[in-house]
Amino acid sequence: MNDGTVNKYWKSPESRNRSVAMPERTLDESVAEESAAGTIDRRRFLEAAGFTLSLATVAGCDSARAPDKKALPLIEQPEGMVPGRMRYYASTCSGCSAACGLLAGVRDGRPLKMEGNPEHPLSRGGLCAVGQALPLGLYDSHRLDNPLKDGSNASWGDVDAEIIAALQQIEVSGGAVRMVTDTVTSPTLQASIDDFLSRFADARHVTFDAAGSGSIRRAHEKTHGAAVLPHYLFERADVIVSFGADFLGTWISPVEFTAAWRTRRVPDGPHPKMSYHAQLESRMTLTGSNADERLVIRPEEEGLVLSHLAAILAQRAGVSLTGSELAPAPIAAEQLQDLADRLWEARGRSLIVSASEDDQVQILVNFLNHVLGNYGKTLDMERPSHQQQGSDADVAALVKELRDGKVAALLVAGIDLTHYLPAHEKLVQAISQIPLTVSFAERWNDFAQLAKFVCPDHHILESWLDAEPVRGVFSLVQPTVQPLKGTRSILESLATWSEKPAFAQDVLRTNWQEKVFPRQNRVSDFGTFWDQSLHDGFAKIVTDPVTTSPFDQSAVALFDAAPEVIDYTLILHNTIAIPDSRHAHNPWLQELPDPVSKVTWDNYASVAPETAKELSLQDGDVVRIEAHDSGTTIELPAFVQPGQHPRVLSVALGYGSPGTERFANIGPEWLESKSTVGRNGLVGTNAAPLLVLDDERLLHVRTGVRLTKTAAHHALATTQEHDSLDVPPEVAPLGGERRHAIEETTLVQFAANPKSGSHAHPLGDVQLWAEDHPQEGHAWGMAIDLNACSGCSACLIACQSENNVPVVGRDEVRRQREMHWIRIDRYYSGEGANTTVSHQPMMCQHCDNAPCETVCPVLATVHSEEGLNQQVYNRCVGTRYCANNCPYKVRRFNWFDYPHNDVFENLSLNPDVTVRSRGVMEKCSMCVQRIQEAKIESQCSGEPIVDGQIQPACQQTCPASAIVFGDLNDPDSKVSAAMNTPRSYRVLEELNVRPSVGYLRIVRNRETDTHAEDHHDG
Amino acid sequence: MTANADTLRPPLVTGDKSLGDVTRDVCAPLERRPTGSWWAALAVSSTMLLVGFIAVWYQIATGIGTWGLNKTVGWAFDITNFVFWVGIGHAGTLISAVLFLFRQRWRTAVNRSAEAMTLFAVTCAGIFPLIHMGRPWLFYWMLPYPNTRGSLWVNFKSPLIWDFFAISTYFLVSLVFWYLGLLPDLASIRDRSKGLRRKIFSLVCLGWNGSARTWHRYETVYMLLAGLATPLVFSVHTIVSMDFATSVIPGWHTTIFPPYFVAGAIFSGLAMVLTLMIIARKVMSLENYVTVNHVDKMCKLMLSMGCLVGLAYATEFFMAFFSGNVYEQFVFKNRAKGPFSWAYWTMVTCNVVIPQVLWLKRVRTNLAFVFVIAIFVNIGMWFERFVIIVTSLHRDFLPSSWAGYAPTIIEILTFLGTFGLFFTCFLIFCRFVPVIAIAEVKGVLPAEKREQDDVVERSQEVAA
């Protein structure tokens, strides 16, 4: 591949027939050296990237980072390189430690759109919101442009010289070197870190995540003799019992788990079967909102419930378990019995997971999984997960060392160390005394402000890196663009400071040649192996299993006492949008409505409705949360969250990060507009001061917090005002108390009658108009399986990225003017602990009898002959009549000219989609640009469009594969099949607007439906 | 007219006025220097107009986001104000055309100002469809004219297009009708003035010479135009109501809307005529021309319209109940008990409850009372449109999209600005044009007065 020709590989036909080209190293012939330059402006960017017809060139020159390289056009146009055509390069997401596979869509040298890699063994084509938001992070003008020394710009040469000198001194003096990173799934980076640290007498690598799994690994060390995080296989589990683990949202590897979980949520077929999923939790997580049974317990009670289960199941399994009399369980005896029965019946096909930070709780979980024979079946210990390896104990030890002034060099990458430590103001002094502090932060953050040197790392889309998220699954990160800023790969920085300078690509290649390649036996030639892995984005390597010892029951101890209730228990958690504070800089993610609360641009204290009543709290009333022991307080707005335990508060971490003051004026500015940031000048409030930190541990759950209401109010920007399909009782008409936008049934009822749960109002075939517009060619349609949809909201950001949807800021969201083309409607039903949640993606329904079309005075919205409802931006004069007349309220109006002042950020815009101006209406187009592209391709090649070839952005990214798009005129298409299942229905069918989007009814694996059917209208 | 008939009906003009008195009385305000109160009123109203102009300017420069609308409530103050002003205009045409055809001679005292009011109100109304557009500079795309953009025409299915035609037709016909009625009076002013003023009025009265032939032609055309304008009274608001009635939104999708809107429009128009005339007769010393008798008649008409509107409210509720459509039922319960119930009950109180006191003759003849009631009706009819538009939109089919609405300062100032425009126009009208149709009022003077004055006036003209 180094001979300059471009290899063009076709992926399997299912993968959208898109070409995946190999990056090339055509350095010699197409890259001329140029001295390093400072800032990159739009013109220079175009020079650098736009003219680069071969992305390969760009990728190739990444390795030559230190002296900047200028990319020039290839002299000969390689075959298959069509300017303006999107090309996809397999890479790996770095949004969190899950390391999902992605395809980076690059157009004319510009990475624009992330897609899930359908062939990736873990993520299976899905990608979460954070992964979808990567391009905006790349084109972030606030990313650091060059290294900083004491907060001011410096050159790499000077910084390197000083750091090397300082390190040599430490090496001689034997001072302690501490490297803090988030989970390093990259074997090459790990090797680099190890190599870098090996010179020093006292060196340690501390892994610090916003959420860790230390307790799981410690528990396995005690029970299995191996401190590993098992690889959970949800696709094999018939019964899933989760204790507070938000595995569909934020826990370990949500995209993979969603894809796996979803495979067991398809009740179609002659003998409908589904997995049973019970969630025992205290706050309403996304996972809990999808559970068949959700039981509300306090986090401290997990041990007691597990002890009861352990007692029952141990007895059944004939395992003796010593323990005194157990206090009564916080859940009903029959529920406990039911859970035990189901688990016992599904031995070897069940899975118990817990996010508890208590080792003893995790040991009980291990015991249960062991008794049920799940190890080796639903939990893989041989090929464990390398994700979320953060170790709370190591962090606690590090903080102690910092306080004692024992650290001579502190290097921090990935995580914003001080932002995530409680009482960090006391540490500031200690950290500033450290002789050498280095931050690898891409942006200005809490620790970067303290560090002597900031050596910014590349954005992931500019980097060479790899990942091994699960033992044996290796994936590669390849650059898709020449670095846009004066940043440097961490691999290169570490190599330079180890005084063995090397290019990142060479470091990576060497590591693969030496460590990865020998472990496989499929290919004999490394070049072929490397090319193939780079093309696929991953390589599966048969690895030696981790050795474990037989189950050691000695550590198992039952919780016999009922935990005392001390005021409130506080849970500090991460959110789907902002898994850690790095992502707080991404306005797409800040404006992503939380899948459950629908709040944007803020963190808040979730309180149960009962608690809110007790303290007469309304959404947005500012509350003071005070820790008994430390006396730490924070103030932030309250949010009333149905399904929350009345004695539990929960607050998201990752907010209130330094640097978010940049969003103060993100929205349109006018007479009555309000700032997007709060009174502290930041987006949200940092809740980390309330983390529990002692010499041993760093805990996210804290008991004994006081909650008081203050006089202040901070209006939260939520995208949904009314939370239920039940209309308010005072205005509810008889028989119309509940609306049936969401239809649901139970597995039992569904098995008896596949049409159960239907609320269709049969109209016959009433048509006022003559059917004189037959759709003879295609009739595009979409089916959304509500039973599969978890509500994770990845589709929102995929759509935002694909369709240039603007960010409007907190005040505009508060005024109910968010611009998202697809929204996830979330409805609650039931009360208190019985709260059931339903999620419904809602976008333009492309009605055949579209009410919007008839009312537009200027024909700006018209029907295509393929069944699409089209919006003609140029023709729209903005009367908004169409939006008023839309029963689904999916149309979005450009109330202002949304700011596009950040020229650099504008590079993330998709050139295939118009950027809408002020005063025009817009809405979901079913990614008409993708349909057109496929049609043009089909016309050129003469091949018909195959089913599944066109995937709108929302479908492509959906981790749960809940969305199917296709041709309704093709009886064999997947969408036709979905529309013809008995579960299929259309929202507001009785209006006879004939939507082209169908939904598949929710089937809950419950005996009886306790909520939804109560209000069945006659 | 015999003395016998006079005892049956009270005289329409009191104060024993002669023909000459009529001309003098009506022209007096035009011929003397404007009073301090006129200047004060003009200062206030033109300030309001200026403020409104600035608000509109700001809104067009910045975006419709400066209004309180959102993804769910796409129309609120804008279309409320539009329908409100169009409705106000209706009384003018009703009084000038319909009452003319029905030979209601009492109309002569108020028709001129009512017609002027129509024009100004429709002007105010017309502003809103224009500025409510996202891109108002493209308003001409609403016109079906041959263009270079392919065969791109307007959507004739859209009620907004019907609206565009209905309102522009209405404005033009009203303007012509009003101007035609002005001709004899403009000639009277011409005859009474000198210099530049005379030249101007000579021009605008189109050479009126008062001959029998002129009068004959004038009256024929007037009658024909009255016949043409009459259907407009009903068509304009019918079409305005179709903006709502043809939609799918519960609370809008109602077949009762055309008659309901027309009744409401006349109701609000009469209230506005009364409001203005009660002030004007006092300020301009025209108590003998706009008498308590006139007010009494207008009150009766207003009361009947109020009852019709009340019936429409009740019918809507009944039909919602009777239809069995839960969305429809919800909308009406939500109007009465939901977040905007205060607006609904303001509407019912002002439009249905308060006007009931007009059954009492004592109230109808007490101008202070009538004035207060007319103000209430004006407020109530504004809220009627607000209730129809906002409460139907803010909670429609899918509860996830339910939203609230509150106007911004820009919307409030824009609305205020249209009042500024209306009153500024009206004040200028009072200064330059006879507010009472002189020629027509002369026709309703007692017969003996007419004859007597004829002789006197003719002898005066001869002497001059």
How do the helices and strands line up, and which of them pair or pack?
The complex is a heterodimer of chains A (1018) and B (464).
Chain A: E1 8-10, E2 19-21, H1 27-30, E3 31-33, H2 42-50, H3 55-61, E4 69-71, E5 86-92, E6 101-107, E7 110-116, H4 129-132, H5 134-138, E8 148-149, E9 152-153, H6 156-173, E10 176-181, H7 187-198, E11 202-207, H8 214-224, E12 229-232, E13 239-243, H9 254-262, E14 276-281, H10 286-290, E15 293-296, H11 302-317, H12 333-345, E16 350-354, H13 359-371, E17 379-385, H14 392-403, E18 407-413, H15 424-432, E19 436-439, H16 446-450, E20 453-454, E21 465-470, E22 473-477, H17 490-497, H18 504-516, H19 526-536, E23 538-540, E24 568-573, H20 587-590, E25 599-600, E26 605-607, H21 609-614, E27 621-627, E28 633-640, E29 648-652, E30 692-693, E31 698-699, E32 701-713, E33 717-718, E34 744-746, H22 747-752, E35 780-785, H23 794-803, H24 810-814, E36 823-829, E37 836-842, H25 851-855, E38 861-863, E39 869-871, H26 881-884, E40 892-893, E41 921-922, H27 928-941, H28 953-957, E42 963-967, H29 974-979, E43 984-985, E44 997-1000, E45 1002-1004
Parallel strand pairs in A: 10-11, 10-18, 13-14, 13-16, 14-15, 18-19, 19-20, 24-29, 26-28, 34-45, 35-44
Antiparallel strand pairs in A: 1-2, 3-4, 5-6, 6-7, 8-9, 8-20, 12-17, 21-22, 22-23, 24-32, 25-33, 26-29, 27-28, 27-32, 30-31, 35-42, 36-37, 38-39, 40-41, 43-44
Chain B: H1 3-8, H2 19-31, H3 36-62, H4 77-101, H5 111-131, H6 159-192, H7 195-204, H8 212-245, H9 257-283, H10 292-323, H11 326-337, H12 341-353, H13 361-364, H14 367-394, H15 409-432, H16 438-443, H17 447-463
Helix pairs in contact in B: 3-15, 4-5, 4-8, 4-9, 4-14, 5-6, 5-15, 6-7, 6-8, 8-9, 9-10, 9-14, 10-11, 11-12, 12-14
Molecular structure report:
- The complex is a heterodimer of chains A (about 1000) and B (about 475).
- In chain A, helix 8 (about 215-225) packs across helix 13 (about 360-370), helix 11 (about 300-315) packs across helix 12 (about 335-345) and helix 11 runs parallel beside helix 13.
- Chain A is globular and about 90 Å long.
- Among the domains of chain A are: about 215-385, Dimethylsulfoxide Reductase, domain 2; about 570-720, Beta Barrel (Barwin-like endoglucanases); about 730-735 and about 745-760 and about 775-1015, Alpha-Beta Plaits (2-Layer Sandwich), CATH 3.30.70.
- Chain A is α/β, with parallel strands linked by helices.
- In chain A, strand 10, helix 7 and strand 11 form a beta-alpha-beta unit.
- In chain A, about 25% of the residues lie in helices and about 20% in strands.
- The termini of chain A are far apart.
- Chain B is mostly helical and about 475 residues long.
- Chain B has one domain: Formate dehydrogenase/DMSO reductase fold, CATH 1.20.1630.
- In chain B, about 70% of the residues lie in helices and about 0% in strands.
- The radius of gyration of chain B is 24 Å and the shape is globular.
- Classes of the chains: A alpha/beta (about 1000), B mainly alpha (about 475).
- The interface between A and B is large, with 68 and 59 residues.
